[in-house]
Amino acid sequence: MAALCESFTLCGLGPSGGVGLGGGLLALEPGPDPDHVLLTDRGRTATLFKVSDQKPLGCWSVKHGQIITCPVVCNFETHEYIAVHDDKVLRIWKNTDINLDKVFKATLSADVYRIHSLPHGGPIVLFKGGGVRTLDVLLEAPQQEIENIISDEVIKWSEAFMDGQQPVLIFTTEKGGDFFVYVQKLKMNSLHKYKLEQREIPKPLIFTAYIKNQIITLLCLYSNDSVYKVLIPLQQNSEEEEQILCKSQLLKLSVSGSVLKGTSFVVLDKNHIAILGSLAAPGEESKECLTIWNTKFQTLQTSKELPLATSGQLWCYEEKFFFTHGKVLTVIMYKCETSSLAAAVGKHKDSQTPDVSSFVNWNTLADEELVVSFQSQQSVVLKSESKMTLRSKRNSIAKVQPDTLSVGQILLNLKDTSTTVFEDELRQLISKARMPDFQASIGCVITALINRCKTNPKYYPRNFLLHIVQTQDLSYSLCPDLMAVALEKKDVHLLQICLQRFPDIPEEITYACLKVFLSISEAYLQRIDVNLESVICYIDIEFNNKEVKTEIVENGFNAELEQETIWNTEITKDTHLTADGSFCPVGPQKAALLNAVLHSGYSEVFLLPHLKNLPAQQAVLFLRYLYYLYVKSSEKINTALPGIRSPTISQIMDWMCLLLDAHFTVMVMLPEAKELLSNLHKFVRAQVRFYSELNKIEGSLRELQRLNHQKDSQTYSIEVLELI
Prior knowledge:
This protein is an alpha+beta fold.
């Protein structure tokens, strides 16, 4: 049994959202750690990512005019990175290197097709002419002559494995419609050439392979939408120069009359493969989807529709799928269990095995497939009943005990019910004791609510959604459309709670929330419910006259702020009243919303391009509020604002620097921001001087502390110490 689990976004791919990935993704390779992946774009850049944190750890680029021509790989033995640009120029560097112009460089004598790096076999370099060298041998003499083995053939695909202690390289070539397979064992320096059996019109499009028991299993996806298997034994005694490889059909990519046009596929285990492609039904528009197939029983195990475009590339590492989806690189976790016929046809009785429909959006499945799924489930639950027609069985589904139905089946049954019944049933489903894959099930419930919002614009269960988010441990990746709908509805309270509770919100959504919070009027915010626990301790609120006052401090004073009754499209004329940081430039509701943004996680590299699109007036207002927080936090010795979820000094400083980086040129030219920038400069300079003076007496204070420890604490004395 195989299932797709939760998904999340690793990084953006567009010019404004990615780390040097604006030209598209060339390849994804494993990094030095199981949690690291190495991305190479179709241009000049390679980026190392930590998958669990969705954060870049390093980014390296070659000079303008140079192009990386094959995927960058990691040398697992030395933890160095290897790249080839302009076909022949080899570069090797470490994590600590920044400028690739200053790292090791070697110009080779032939064009490189690809470098494969094995954890215990070292890097292997495959040249476009079919020549193969280990990296160590190549570095001994970079200009050594490389033999041309394949003459007029063109390499289509390659892969490397370890057979015990022996590195093995396999690659396929094509010439005039004929396809050839080369297998080379490097330590034995043996090369075998094979020709793929070609008796029919279909041609092989994509290849993948794995090795087991000294036998290479080559899987080929052909143009007739079938996967074929070719067995290649490593022990060869024949002296024939070219042997014919026979193929056998492993899988036909069709289900319920629909055909899957695969663009990429990977092997998961001996019984499962994953295929990325377009599922096309007669008379319907094709839909891109990710599928997992059981090759042992030739069944489709699970699928996920991908509404946004993909590049057709699919990678798989550490039980995670990686593929481009729209303008982002998406990661989906999966799990494969021991294959059995019951699991393959959906009749597994093990309650711990999650139903496939728990992970699939029921709106994306055809009605026929849902009925078949229900029928197979019903045959287990209602095995004592007499056989019924399919139509009558569909009508009797609602009579089945709810505990015997999967989440996907329950949601389908509720698809056409009234709003009241729909919400009541979902509340009962959520209130049940925790079931297997409970979080994924809650994600499906939220998806069902959002889908109904999309089909019925007047329907928006605000309180229900708010209750789910507040009571369940969710993430953005489990319900990615939730915040988008909340932004559309201007539901700032729900957005605030999501920002506080979701750990994996993309920077684009964080920026969208910030823009909405800054643009919405104070008068509107006073009429809605907002959690004020992060501001109530340092902003005094008079609820009778709805005035906002600053907290009384030892050497400060109070002042009233005018309320805004329109959207904040203009900066107030009295900007000098708040430019010194003594007054809060926004009301408590807006301050609480902005604090939620300050608490959300982000990557500076990804957020900065979005912040540059923030309107200048909103940027000035946000900077004024950050300056106010900076002044308030600096009044206390511990530099911490009182209250729950109040911003820390580090968060305030980081956002202030980020905002200035994004808008410094504009702010310098804005008259409204001139005094604010001047006051900010003076305040920071005064703090720098203050801490500089503290550093000067640090040595004296340490000496005083040392002397106090040496003295007898029971003797009374008065001493005068002069600090010079």
